[in-house]
Specification:
The protein is 28% helix and 25% strand. By secondary structure, the chain is of the alpha/beta class. α2 links the parallel β4 (53-58) and β5.
Length: 231
């Protein structure tokens, strides 16, 4: 089994309800920022990091996403009966992703600075880690409300609590997914088990990030990208 990831899971199945009327007829990953669908911003990150095996899960308006992604070589994991959430969705996609740790990336954010997947790969240590989450301090997490998701020790171990914001990018080992009985579950369940065993780690993103989960996030994301180009 490989110990370093060479496949990426894109989470693209959600309803995008926070986007209001913008997602009544279009799935959120196809909402455009600077004239490009959000999912294509994610694919640009994957290709720049040299990742060729990419899988996306689909549920809401799947025909539109399939028509957009299949010609780009993205493998599709259809959750036709119900959304399986991040944990169940990742488990269903494992035959397409292969064994060993994988990258995962949410499709409702944009980034500036260093490639987030390359940052994760440079820090990943499978001898110590079952998951490595890419984090930001709250003041660099544009569009995110709250005081953070995790605290982090000096050696990178994570615990629940205010401090750093999870960016939606990670490397995670997938073998423990088989131990969860529920068909629908969040990766939060797996993270909590890893944290209890001191195997959940984090690292900080060197750059900016914007959550595009609400309509106002589109303008915020475009402003972030414009500022990054002008630096």
């Amino acid at each position: 089994m490989r110990n370093h990831p060479d496949a990426l899971m894109l989470f693209a199945a959600g309803f995008g309800t926070r986007m209001g009327s913008l997602t009544q007829a279009v799935p959120k990953p196809l909402i455009e920022v600077e004239g490009k669908p959000l999912v294509d911003h994610a694919l640009d990150i994957a290709h720049a990091a040299g990742i060729d095996r990419v899988v996306a899960n689909l549920h809401y308006l799947p025909e539109q996403l399939a028509a957009h992604l299949a010609p780009k070589g993205v493998a599709l994991s259809l959750e036709d009966e119900q959304i399986l959430e991040t944990g169940g969705g990742l488990r269903q996609a494992l035959p397409l992703l292969g064994e060993g740790p994988v990258f995962t990336l949410n499709t409702d954010a944009v980034w500036s600075g260093r490639n987030p997947l390359e940052e994760l790969a440079a820090t990943w240590d499978p001898s110590r880690m079952d998951a490595l989450l890419l984090l930001l301090p709250p003041d660099r997490a544009t569009g995110h409300n709250g005081t953070g998701d995790f605290t982090m020790t000096s050696d990178g171990r994570l615990s629940r609590g205010p401090g750093y914001v999870y960016s939606g990018a990670q490397i995670i080992r997938t073998d423990a997914l088989a131990d969860i009985a529920e068909p629908v579950f969040s990766l939060n369940l797996l993270w909590d088990r890893m944290a209890a065993n001191d195997r959940l780690f984090g690292t900080l993103h060197d750059g900016g990030w914007c959550d595009v989960g609400r309509p106002e996030g589109i303008a915020q994301a475009e402003a972030l990208l414009k500022t990054a180009r002008n630096v």
